[in-house]
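chain below, 122 aa
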Amino acid sequence: MSALRAAVACRRITSYIYSVLRIIPPCIAEFIGTAVLVLIGDGTVANVLLAWTQGRDAGLIVIVSGWAMAVFIAVFMTASSSGAHLNPVVTASLALAGQFAWSKVPDYAWPRSCPAARRATP
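prediction:
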């Protein structure tokens, strides 16, 4: 496959994924984005810290890179449908600045607390 065909195919796949993600309701998108963020980020930390993994003692750079990739993926997934807040501070700051309706704040707050609370429980 030529480079041009590969680029066109990649563009089509990306636009299809983007169109599918755009129709997800904001509360579901925030829930999924937070779950993906926690899953990838904590998975990276577990890979570096657990004794029986291939990434044992890989170092802080691997953890930082893993969390950066987790944030990138979560923002890419949720930006089109919910604005990719993914953090209650972002939602509260936008509401305080008058750029986000206070009536929507609870819809954006509860989905983020569910994956985070599930993560904290054994």
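Helices lie at 3-22, 26-49, 60-82, 88-96, 105-120. The mean pLDDT is 83.
thats it, cya
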